[in-house]
Amino acid sequence: MRKRKNQSSQDFQISQLPRNRWQLFWDILKHNGSQMVVICLVFLLFMAPITIFRYYHLISVGGILSSGSENVNGEIQVAYLIYDLICIPIFLLMSLLLSGLSRIYKRMSFLDGYFLGADFLQGIKENWLDFLLLGLLYGILNLAMDYLGMCFLFSQSFVYYLMKILTYLFLLPWVLISGCASSIYSDPFLEKLFTSLVLYLKHFPRVLLSVLVLEAPMYFLPFSYPAVQLFLPLGYGLLYLPFAFLGFVLSTNHIFDKEINQFSINSISRS
């Protein structure tokens, strides 16, 4: 018989509750150690397709730069355009995995019991559409911003770096907050998307700090050797991202508690 996680035979006391999100983070890790090992492997699977594809894309770009072609700029733009187009279905696959993981993280953050496999599949069943739409939105906007940045890479490079900053410090956290909202609330997709944008802007310092911690190891990629370009993201997915994403979820839930839950608790309908 399957054993439901987080069920205790001991009497529960209010004093045992975590006093803040930081204590809750360590409390979750303390009681979900074996489950986190499995989640780490799922995140490795989550990162593998985009990492491998990005690695071979960089090899292709390196070949263009060393070819001595007279139209290096145009060939690199085409290479990045093809790369970003193919990334869209990869982002959709990643979104499906994240839709299942989001339910597990939600139940862990609420200190609810869960079955790892069953709740993962239930999360996909409940959240697949919202997460696919978020993956599609991220893929299309990432393509547009990346292509715009590449157009100015050799003339006005600050535009290129501005697009990268907007992608990773604005677009990505907005999509992730929307994903956290989708795993909890049953409101229409566009309403959750707009609410997440408002909450992001209203709590910008907190969200920025959370996303900087979430993405921190990946900031070393532009300065890494080719082999590191392959193994750093895989190590990030296996050893860092599962725990950093838990911190991001807890931080986002804190924002939801302040701005939504105390005023409209009835909108929480996903179990």
- Provide the gyration radius in Å: 20 Å
> How is the quaternary structure best described?
single chain
- Strand tally is 0
Head-to-tail CA distance between termini = 22 Å
* Number of H/I helices: 8
SSE topology:
Blueprint (H helix, E strand, L loop, with lengths): L20 H11 L1 H34 L5 H38 L6 H36 L5 H28 L4 H14 L1 H12 L10 H36 L10
Task: Kindly summarize this structure in a few lines.
The chain has 271 residues and is an all-alpha fold. It is built from eight helices and no strands. It has one domain.
Task: Describe the model.
By secondary structure, the protein is mostly helical. It has one domain (33-263). It has 8 helices and no strands. It has helices spanning 21-31, 33-66, 72-109, 116-151, 157-184, 189-202, 204-215, 226-261.
Keywords:
271 residues; single chain; mainly alpha; globular
